[in-house]
Amino acid sequence: MGDVKEDTTMKAEPPVLEAGGLDPRTTATIQGRYNRQARFFDLTEALMERLLMRRWRRRQWSMVSGPRVLEVGVGTGKNFPHYPSDVQVAAVDFSPKMLARAVGKARKKSVPVSLGLMDAQSLAVPEACFDRVVSSFVFCSVPDPVLGLREVRRVLRPGGRAILLEHMRSRNRVLGWLMDRLNGLCVRMSGANISRDTVANVERAGLRVVSVQHLLGDVVKLIEAER
After folding, report:
1. N-terminal to C-terminal alpha carbon distance within the chain
2. Residue 64: which of 84, 85, 42 has the closest Cα?
3. Are the C-beta atoms of 70 and 51 separated by less than 8 Å?
4. Were 49 and a residue from 53, 66, 97, 172 both cysteine, which residue would form a disulfide, CB within 3.0 to 4.6 Å?
5. Cα(139)–Cα(163) distance, rounded to whole angstroms?
6. Per residue in 63-107, pLDDT tens?
7. Angle, helices 24-37/96-109, rounded to nearest 10 degrees
8. Which residues contact 48 (CB under 8 A, 6 or more apart)?
9. For residues 136, 184, 150 and 124, what is the CA-based torsion angle, rounded to 10 degrees?
10. 94 and 118 Cβ atoms separated by less than 8 Å
11. Measuring CA to CA, which residue among 210, 71, 199 is closest to residue 133?
12. Closest Cα to residue 94, out of 72, 110, 61, 125?
């Protein structure tokens, strides 16, 4: 699958990734925040995962066809149970410690996935080598989301599609104002922005938006876009 190779020997704490993108310092800072969260990440999101996110992930992956699929921002491997059986999935993340959790989970559950340490802002794979690119709650955290989405477009084949599950700023006047005020705190605590317009960022990156499903008001959306 291009330059993404299956890693069956990754240690519990892989080497730190050299930050890429336009702002290496910011990338390294966000990477560090996710490294710190990795050990308890599944636990802290367990209730939300059970009540809502698992259902959203299932819907997202029901839209995925292949054969060649790239998951950007695999995290601890929460999407593993939803991978279709008839696709070849390569999955990457820029946090070594989050990726290490995914590696352990993939080994324990025999998930057929190729895993690699990689920054969404600089994907080390050839152009036009994937039929689908999938991400779940990722482009709220990528330091330069438009740069990352341009990389998604680059690695998709012509006519290939990105299937993105994302939370973003509400258009509701009061809620949007509140999200703007809390965004800085959220970024410092978790690395995630809550005031981005990911649909607009997808369009800025040169992808054509095919459909947008509203899953939780106008905050959580499932976006399908085409190269």
Report:
1. 19
2. 84
3. no
4. 53
5. 12
6. 999 899 999 999 999 999 999 999 999 999 999 999 999 999 999
7. 50
8. none
9. -70
10. yes
11. 71
12. 72
For the chain, list the domains and their CATH numbers: 24-226 (3.40.50.150)
C-alpha span between 185 and 107 (Å, rounded): 36
Comparing 187 with 15, which gets the higher pLDDT? 187
Convert the pLDDT of each residue in 16-66 to its tens digit: 333 344 578 889 999 999 999 999 999 999 999 999 999 999 999 999 998
Give burial (CB, 10 Å; 0-12/13-18/19+) of 45. middle
Cβ-based neighbours of 2, under 8 Å, separated by 6 or more: 90, 125, 126, 129, 130, 155
Q: How far is CA 203 from the centre of its chain?
A: 17
pLDDT at 24: 85
**Dihedrals φ, ψ of 46, to 5°?**
-60, -45
